[in-house]
Specification:
The protein folds into two domains: about 20-230, Beta-galactosidase, Chain A, domain 5 (Distorted Sandwich); about 255-460, no CATH class. About 25% of the residues lie in helices and about 30% in strands. The chain has helices at about 235-240, 255-270, 285-295, 345-360, 365-375, 380-415, 420-425, 435-445, 450-460; strands spanning about 20, 30-35, 40-45, 50-60, 65, 80-85, 85-100, 100-110, 115, 120-125, 135-140, 140-145, 155-160, 165, 175-180, 185-190, 195-200, 210-215, 220-225, 300-305, 315-320, 325-330. Helix 5 (about 365-375) runs antiparallel to helix 6 (about 380-415) and helix 6 (about 380-415) crosses helix 8. The model is unreliable at about 1-30 (pLDDT under 50).
């Protein structure tokens, strides 16, 4: 059963009237500052206006909330949380100003004795009305702080991802960026709890099952708060994703490899005879396809697999690290129930699909690097999915260039059409290439086949 770690809420316990001490001196009169209350709450200010607050929360069974006790040792930023009158959790708060508008916040909580809890978290509270209608970006999710109630109260979630709020429509364009370290992040509509917008940091514990928090086990909530950073655009975020595009390196092919490549092309034409009129042994297109099957850019070469892909799809390239790659292309249309499902493909469509899968396999090194990053936990599932979609779009861009530079002149020499209505309907006249932003908006959706397919692939890699 899938659970959401942010669906339960606690009591908002901060008290604004007890501003006890300033955590950071404001000698150079910076625009932004933070102060610490005797109850362990950090209050954030822009000039003299209070714009938000930060506080840790501890819940035990039944979502019983345990408040931070007033501290007599506030100058050392040390606090305690009492649980059931007999156990206590030690709280240490460390805040540093890294620059005029950049703060590093670290909450460390540690129980003196083992205690059963259901959630330990740190919350950042903002007045919801002051961010209503403003933009947000959490990881790869972009949106607007909604006016209508959110189902389940959860606006967005991510792991180890920065959150950017703003520019605020009310607070003179204020932008706030929160950068966590190894934390789960939830952006939550909590208007029913005092009209607040919550940012919740946890370590990923299930809110439906209590766990034993062992004595001496530290839970650290470490994050940066950056005021008036430049809002991130979708294009900048997509450009920042790893791995970057790499330079292709061609392999020297032996006569045996070239013979293998020719055998695969002959098998392909035997299985898909409608393609034969476009290629003749020894012409430029024949030689190019032979080299690709032989392994000009794909180590160990590519073999033609006449079987239909599973699950059923128009075309697919398969790769298994260290083994020979393969290409499968169906004779009939099978990608969309509303697009000639089950009808025979034309020669133009089949040739395009062959080119696309061959260029897709040229990006194997990027795919392998991305798979390794997934196994090591260096990319989230969302980052993995969008990066693969963008790598595939690189392949489409390569097909576009090949189409105009090689395919069209080749077809004109043979007095054959280089595209037909089916190819134009599928990919646009002349093979339209989407921008990275268009790929994100068109294909990055949990209900779509490719999203689901790569989501499952990511899960398999993480096992």
């Amino acid at each position: 059963m899938k659970f959401n770690i942010f669906t339960h809420f606690g009591i908002i316990f901060f008290s604004f009237q007890f501003i006890w001490a300033s955590v950071l001196k404001d000698e150079d009169k910076n625009f932004f500052r933070m102060t610490l209350t005797k109850n362990g709450v950090l209050i954030m200010y822009e000039n003299e206006k209070q714009i938000g607050s930060i506080a840790p929360e501890i819940f035990t069974r039944g979502w019983e909330f345990h408040p931070i006790e007033s501290s007599k040792n506030i100058l050392k930023s040390k606090f305690e949380v009492g649980i059931n009158g007999e156990k206590k959790v030690l709280l240490d708060i460390n805040v540093k100003r890294l620059s005029g508008s950049v703060f590093r916040v670290e909450y460390t909580l540690m129980p003196e004795r083992s205690v059963e809890v259901i959630q330990v978290r740190t919350n950042i509270f903002f007045p919801y009305d002051e961010w209503l209608g403003s933009n947000y970006q959490l990881g790869l999710s972009f949106g607007i702080i909604p006016e209508a109630p959110v189902v389940g109260n959860i606006i967005s979630t991510a792991y180890d991802s920065s959150l950017v709020l703003g520019p605020s429509r009310i607070q003179k364009g204020l932008v706030i960026k929160l950068v966590p370290k190894d934390l789960y992040v939830g952006l939550q509509d909590s208007r029913i709890y005092g009209g607040k917008l919550y940012v919740i940091y946890t370590h990923g514990e299930s809110p439906y099952r209590a766990f034993n928090w062992k004595a001496g086990e530290k839970k650290v909530f470490d994050f940066d708060v950056i005021f008036n950073s430049e809002p991130s655009s979708l294009s900048k975020v997509l450009l920042s994703l790893e791995p970057k595009k790499s330079q292709l390196i061609s392999n020297t092919l032996s006569p045996i490899q070239l013979a293998w490549g020719e055998t695969q092309l002959e098998r392909l034409l035997n299985d898909r005879p409608v393609m034969t009129s476009y290629v003749h042994k020894g012409d430029d297109l024949w030689n190019w396809v032979v080299r690709q099957f032989a392994g000009e850019y794909v180590k160990n070469g590519i073999w033609w697999d006449a079987r239909n892909p599973e699950p059923l799809w128009n075309a697919k390239s398969n790769e298994d690290m260290g083994k020979r790659a393969s290409i499968q292309i169906t004779s009939n249309f099978y990608s969309n129930n509303y697009f000639h499902w089950g009808e025979p493909k034309t020669s133009c469509v089949l040739w395009f699909e062959l080119f696309y899968e061959m260029f897709n396999l040229q990006n194997l090194n990027l795919r392998y690097e991305l798979m390794d990053m997934a196994k090591q936990g260096k990319v989230t599932k969302e980052e993995y999915i969008i990066r693969i979609l963008l790598i595939e779009n690189q392949s489409l861009r390569s097909v576009h260039n090949f189409f105009h530079n090689i395919w069209i002149p080749h077809c004109r020499t043979l007095s054959l059409p280089y595209e037909d209505k089916f190819l134009i309907e599928l990919h646009g006249e002349g093979i339209k290439v989407l921008t990275d932003e268009e790929v994100y908006k068109k294909y990055f959706h949990p209900e779509l086949f490719r999203y689901k397919y790569y989501s499952e692939e990511y899960d398999r890699l993480k096992k």
